Amino acid sequence: MKIEQIDVQVSRLPLRKGPWGDQIHHVTHIEIILVDVRTDDGLVGTGFSHTSGVGGRTIAAMINELVPELIGKDVAPRALWQNSWKYLRDNGGGGTTTLSLAGLDIAYWDLLGKALRTPLANLLGRCHDRIPLYGSGINLNNDVEQVVEQVNRWKLEGYAAGKVKVGKPDIEEDVYRLTKIREAVGSYPLMVDANQGWTFPQALRAFERFAPLDLIWIEEPLPIDDILGHRRLAKRVRGSIGLGENVYHIAQFNQFFEAGACDFVQADLGRVGGITPYLDIAATARAWNLPMAPHFVMELSANVLCAVPNAYLAEDTDGGTLTELGVLTPGQSAVGGYFTPSERAGHGLMFDRDYLRSTLCGADLG
Fold first, then answer.
1. Statement to judge: residues 160 and 53 lie in one domain
2. In the prediction, which pLDDT does 16 show?
3. Domain co-membership, 177 together with 74
């Protein structure tokens, strides 16, 4: 089974429930970079990458630059990924390079599943039939009553936990908001996400003030490039650190693990370069006895987690799943707080081509 043709398109999708807000972002659109890989026996595998509204055309251009290197090659995900990463490596070990590789890699695995008439989770080695989810709100811009209502809804719908944003200019406002949530939901498990927005002294203060709230993790307390800062923080505070959505390659993850600065591993399938490197990161985390709780794209992340022994939770981003963005038809939603993968061959994601064409970003990228 050899690669015969690769097509790429970028769609820019409005957030249907309104803008997202946190310490460092104001997001109005999500970009989906769709990649179709056709083989010489007529099969088509579909992959995708994503951005928070910026850079989709750059990613598509990088994929198109790779195409001549891929035509005629066997569909062997690990070999293709490694060779393509080496080809792009001088542009950076992660970031745009790995986001570009993700769209291709996901398509390769979809192709293998279709060729073998096997669901992705089975192809990867299923060890879980379904994955528990946590509700995730990008809601720093919402008032506390709205956030309380959101978390209560997740609790009633059976989600294993809820995550909210922190990072108000005054830490006491965060404490007030979290206290109101805790009072409303009782012992329901909660996490918070600071989105890299604190200085080191602010992070120390936040961990101290949040300690009575019994949080599962505090996410991205510091700029993610500061591994040494995270190590210093972990040694000085009570509480667990979650991170990984903005970490792009296995060596950097391993440095966080060795530093004792990551307790919950939140690798993003798109940002690390697809399924192939994600499985390597999960295996490395397993060696450190760390749980996987991936960032975003729930419909694929939870599917892959079914083949990850150290799976913990998948993130159901309120208003930001592929289903809620209108990308999939039919959609794939949580039932009772769990995600159960499709039994269709490959990853089972069926893309709404009409909608994606109607939201194309810019001119022809082929």
1. no
2. 86
3. no
Cα separation, 12 vs 24, whole angstroms: 20
Domain boundary among 100, 118, 136: 118
pLDDT tens for each residue of 169-213: 999 999 999 999 999 999 999 999 999 999 999 999 999 999 999
163, 165, 249, 347: which one is catalytic? Answer: 165
- Answer whether residue 350 is part of any domain: no
Residue 363 has pLDDT above 60, yes or no: no
Phi, psi of 359 (to 5 degrees): -115, 25
Q: Give the dihedral of Cα atoms 78, 249, 25, 141; nearest 10 deg.
A: 90
Does a structural domain hold residue 359?
A: no
Q: At 214, is the pLDDT very low, low, confident or very high (cuts 50, 70, 90)?
A: very high
Instruction: Provide CB contacts within 8 A for 225, sequence distance 6+.
Output: none
pLDDT, tens digit (0-9, with 9 covering 90-100), for 219-276: 999 999 999 999 999 999 999 999 999 999 999 999 999 999 999 999 999 999 999 9
My answer on whether 67 and 140 are in the same domain is no
- Which of 50, 249, 295, 347 is labelled catalytic? 295
How would you class 366 by CB atoms within 10 Å of its CB: exposed for 0-12, middle for 13-18, buried for 19 or more? exposed
Helix (H) or strand (E) segment spanning residue 321:
none
Return the pLDDT at 366. 43
Q: Give φ, ψ of 154 to 5 degrees.
A: -60, -40
* CATH label of the domain that carries residue 315: 3.20.20.120
Give the domain CATH number at 88: 3.30.390.10
CA distances from 57 to 29, 31, 100 (A): 14, 9, 10
Is residue 295 part of the annotated active site? The answer reads: yes
Domain with 92, as residue range(s), is 3-118
3-class SS at 149?
Answer: helix
Both 188 and 98 in one domain: the answer is no
Whose CA is closest to 104, among 128, 91, 87? 87
Per-residue confidence (pLDDT) for residue 78, from 0 to 100 = 98
Q: 94, 118, 142 — which closes off a domain?
A: 118
- In the chain, the percentage of residues whose pLDDT exceeds 90 is 92
